């Protein structure tokens, strides 16, 4: 047994205690816990068998990313079932799972917007991780082109839609002229994760039009835009697909796979209209010039 003075953890080999565990729980077997290490916070005096129940429950978790808040809520829900003492907090749960190699930590960082952290269970791909930061988000634009086999994977684009709006913008020729005289708005809400770049978009609410489930390059389950919805999106925002030449290449490659009727149906549903008299926000969106406060919209036609 070895004591770490820095974090007051006591390292115990489970095999030394298997005899005691068998008396407590006849379902426990030697093979199940062979060579497993458990790090016991000495100030909690929490019994080893209780910690083993927690560790093995989390071993069954399918690959996913969790927030600290979700872990804390899960601890509150399961505390009685685990028979964990009140002194066992979320920091102790995180330490227990990390020390037993059940959970990892992934952090994305931005030069301008700080960092975001997720607690990772299982082999989570960068595409899955990118979609874990906003509820109901999905992969879009250039990333969706890649998933449909129409482009290489470069930046990871993640779209999380705005809430529904009742108002409709008024269109004028002068407004359209202003729109096309300026460069397209582009999201600056960009983060790095290892060698990957993740750009978060906040497009108009489409009520999930053309959002589909798909397997990723590693066979992982992902949410992304359908082929037809993807082609519409990259025409509206070609800079999120690497430029107009990439958009043209995608249409050429997809010409025998697309449904014109489905494109027409999606266009009728999403009702894209260019707005004018706006300024960009951090996620590439627009705020009315009469409103000085920042907003989190993407530069998506709306």
Which short descriptors sum up this protein?
302 residues, alpha+beta, 2 domains, 4-stranded mixed beta sheet, 10 helices, 14 strands, disordered C terminus
Fold and architecture overview:
The chain is an alpha+beta fold and 302 residues long. The protein contains ten helices and 14 strands. Strands 7-8-10-9 form a four-stranded mixed sheet. A three-stranded antiparallel sheet has the order 1-2-3. β5 and β6 form a beta hairpin. The model is unreliable at 1-16, 40-44, 275-281 and 283-302 (pLDDT under 50).
List the helices and strands and how they pair.
Layout: E1 2-4, E2 9-13, H1 18-24, E3 37-41, H2 48-59, E4 64-66, H3 68-82, H4 90-99, E5 104-110, E6 114-121, H5 126-130, E7 138-139, H6 141-147, E8 156-159, H7 173-181, E9 190-193, E10 196-201, E11 211-215, E12 221-225, H8 227-236, H9 244-254, H10 260-270, E13 278-280, E14 286-288
Parallel strand pairs: 8-10
Antiparallel strand pairs: 1-2, 2-3, 4-6, 5-6, 7-8, 9-10, 11-12, 13-14
Helix pairs in contact: 6-8, 8-9
Quick take:
By secondary structure, the chain is of the alpha+beta class. The protein folds into two domains: 2-102, no CATH class; 125-288, Beta Polymerase, domain 2, CATH 3.30.460. It contains ten helices and 14 strands.
């Amino acid at each position: 047994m070895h004591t770490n003075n820095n974090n007051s953890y006591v390292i115990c080999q489970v095999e030394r205690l298997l005899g005691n565990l068998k008396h407590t729980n006849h379902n426990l077997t030697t093979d199940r816990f062979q060579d497993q290490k458990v790090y016991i916070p000495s100030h909690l005096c929490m019994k080893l068998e209780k910690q083993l129940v927690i560790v093995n429950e989390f071993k069954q978790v399918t690959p996913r990313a969790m927030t600290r808040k979700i872990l804390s809520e899960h601890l509150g829900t399961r505390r009685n079932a685990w028979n964990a003492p009140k002194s066992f907090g979320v920091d102790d749960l995180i330490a227990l799972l990390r020390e037993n190699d059940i959970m990892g930590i992934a952090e994305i960082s931005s030069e301008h917007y700080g960092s975001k952290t997720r607690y990772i269970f299982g082999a989570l791909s960068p595409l899955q991780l990118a979609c874990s930061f906003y509820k109901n988000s999905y992969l879009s634009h250039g990333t969706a082109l890649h998933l449909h086999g129409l482009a290489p994977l470069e930046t990871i684009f993640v779209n999380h839609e705005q809430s529904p709006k009742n108002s409709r913008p008024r269109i004028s020729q002068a407004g359209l002229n202003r729109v096309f005289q300026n460069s397209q708005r582009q999201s600056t809400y960009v983060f790095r994760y290892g060698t990957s770049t993740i750009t978060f978009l906040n497009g108009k609410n489409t009520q999930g039009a053309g959002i589909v489930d798909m397997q990723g390059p590693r066979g992982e389950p992902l949410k992304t835009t359908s082929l037809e919805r993807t082609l519409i999106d990259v025409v509206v925002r070609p800079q999120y697909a690497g430029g107009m030449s990439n958009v043209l290449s995608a249409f050429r490659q997809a010409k025998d796979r697309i449904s014109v009727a489905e494109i027409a149906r999606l266009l009728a549903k999403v009702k894209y209209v260019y707005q004018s008299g706006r300024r960009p926000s951090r996620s590439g969106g627009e705020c009315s010039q009469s409103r000085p406060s920042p907003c989190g919209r993407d530069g998506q036609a709306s």
